[in-house]
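Shape is hard to put into words, and the shape of a protein is harder than most. The fold becomes a row of whole numbers, each drawn from a learned catalogue of backbone shapes. The outcome of that step, for a single protein, is printed below.
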Amino acid sequence: MALSSLYTGISGLAAYSQAMSVIGDNIANVNTVGFKASRISFEDIFSQSLVGATGRFQIGRGVQVASIQRIFSQSTFQTTSSATDLAIDGDGFFIVSRNGTTFYTRAGQFYLDEKGYLINHRNYVLQGWMLDDTGAITSVLQDINLSNISSAPKATTRVSLHVNLDINTPILSGSFDVNDPVNTSNYMAPVTVYDATGNAHLVNIYFRKQDNDSWEWHAILDGGELEGGTAGENTEVANGTLDFTDGKLQTETINQAFTARFFGTSSDQAIELDFGQSIDEGGNGLDGSTEFAGGSTTKFLSQDGYAPGNLISIQIDNRGVISGVFSNGRSRPVFQIALARFMSPWGLTSMGGNLFAETTHSGPPIVGEAGSSGLGQINSNSLELSNVDLATEFVEMIKTQQAFQANSRVITTTDQMLQEIVNLKR
């Protein structure tokens, strides 16, 4: 019996030593991003059965560790200044891969390496899907690499130009001269348009007053920018008239539509010029160009073309969509981050470095977009802190220390009992 109690006390020392290791690991990782605390559970060792005068009875043989379980509870977020710092609000794991090996993590500290891959501190690459300009997925799950992302140019197809033409402007003598547009017009508005290759072209639109309620306009381009044109020679590419009633745009007439083949391009480019919705078009004549006193001025100018652009920064929304911001002022979706969840995350194996591996106990990963299939949302400029509760860990430490001391007392007391038995021979 005395020897049995020795082994019982030893089992307690071993079990509570492991418990202290778990507590120490939790406390050590109190500031580890994405760390999930562990909890230890105990069970009794199979009892020894004895038969006595009063019948059959059992004596316990000590304690052993039943399980060490991860606690995947949501932790708080820390706001950061990096758009690639990510935190999952809800269930789910980031998927990272290196050399064909895939792991899962809650730690969202990612950054771009020299090759454009979005990686963590252990050089594992974040996984996602490539997107087209509309945000539709166009690829299988793959490494997120932003090195070859750019914004293609777009040829201008429409120009909106709203001007106020001063009604008090004097009527010039003669007619408009394409070779001397400045002296044969009353007002000029410059417009930049883009061709299919992304080259910018300056088009000057000159306005010349015909009478008190009518103006003619002429779109002039340097001929050297057109196929077959002569450098330095003005080329009229479009013209028309604007008619007003009491200062309101009554009629907008296009006499020559804007069609030009820019140098280096293979086909004609048509550009629609819009001076606002006239009364004849069903408008009120005030939402576009007008003819009021106060000086001629450009009120609004826009065009839908742009030059090519290089990636200068990224933005990530709560669905994990990575949008590129380009040097040409454009923004478009380029990748979507994938998340994974498991039927039994407690069955995952910890690989160190905030990484978990799939096991038969966890089940296969269910991969999807953030916000779908029970997956959480992604918060950019945020990091999930450790879910270790120091107050709870210190209480557990006190309980474990007391239990360890009590089991050591069992051993010393049993030793005293054995010593007494030895002393009976004296």
Observations:
- The chain has three domains: 2-72+387-423, 79-146+335-384, 158-303.
